[in-house]
Design a protein that fits this description.
The protein is mainly alpha-helical and 267 residues long. The chain has one domain. Helix content is 77%, strand content 0%. The longest helix has 54 residues. The protein is elongated and about 105 Å long.
Length: 267
């Protein structure tokens, strides 16, 4: 009976979405709405999974996935509010997400790619990283560890921080993923598929941003062209309506000649 009550009381996706829009009640730009909603649903499903435990690598994956796929969002100041709403909708602390992600990235910055891969397989304590070391050691030993796409993205972000160029080589990239998957006992093919999709989404977002920038640039040029044409028309109209000093003098001289000629004819 208690078990039934517990299951019934689990938050639904609808509950989480309502919580999100309680924390952030502005419309989200249509280009980015899908990114936010997919990440929101993914975070929700993990939060209600009995086997899932959040960790610094997961936090890094969430933070980096959000930051990379939300590039170019306008107004830029709203990005932080959206991220905070995402975390709070699943009862998380956005400051903790960013802090733990930052601590983990700091480790990767100090290591070569080979050193990082070796460290992930056999982590040693680094000042301020004790919880990360414990997490890594427990993953391989936990047969119920709940793998997730954000976790894979967190791993990828670490590798990218250490040596982004090497990850452009598909064979080398896959070999690294294979080694890490074996060391941490992760689903290798699933991880490769998730990261290939993530890389593809990053490329698509870059293309979208370029298309948006091209459209904005073309629009600016059209506005500038119309403004210049308007100025030229106004200048031409003004020149026609207001004769120059020379033309005024000529008109006055012609008038005097006409007046003089008229007098002589009368005589």
């Amino acid at each position: 009976m208690n078990q039934i009550a517990t299951v019934t009381n689990l938050k639904t996706v609808s509950d989480t979405k309502r919580a999100f829009y309680t924390h952030y009640n502005k419309p989200i730009n249509s280009v980015y709405r899908r990114v936010v909603e997919e990440l929101l649903v993914e975070m929700h499903l993990l939060s209600v999974n009995a086997d899932f435990e959040s960790d610094p690598i997961y936090y890094l994956g969430v933070v980096n996935c959000f930051e990379r796929l939300m590039q170019g969002y306008q107004p830029d100041k709203d990005k932080e509010a959206i991220f905070n709403a995402l975390c709070r909708s699943v009862d998380g602390d956005p400051e903790s997400y960013r802090a733990q992600a930052g601590n983990l990235l700091a480790i990767a910055k100090e290591k070569s790619l080979e050193e990082l891969v070796s460290w992930l397989g056999n982590p040693t304590a680094i000042e301020g990283s004790e919880n990360i070391v414990d997490t890594l050691k427990s993953i391989a030993a936990n047969s119920n560890f709940k793998y997730s796409r954000p976790f894979a993205i967190g791993i990828y972000t670490l590798l990218e921080e250490a040596d982004s160029q090497s990850l452009e080589d598909k064979d080398k990239r896959n070999q690294i993923f294979e080694n890490i998957a074996k060391t941490l006992v992760l689903p290798e093919e699933k991880m490769k598929k998730d990261l290939d999709l993530y890389r593809s989404n990053l490329e698509k977002m870059d293309q979208v941003l370029k298309a948006i920038e091209d459209t904005l640039q073309a629009s600016r040029k059209q506005r500038e062209k119309r403004a210049q044409e308007k100025q030229e028309k106004e200048a031409a109209a003004q020149a026609t309506a207001e004769p120059t000093a020379e033309s005024k003098e000529q008109v006055e001289a012609d008038s005097k000649v006409e007046e003089k000629s008229g007098i002589e004819l009368d005589k």
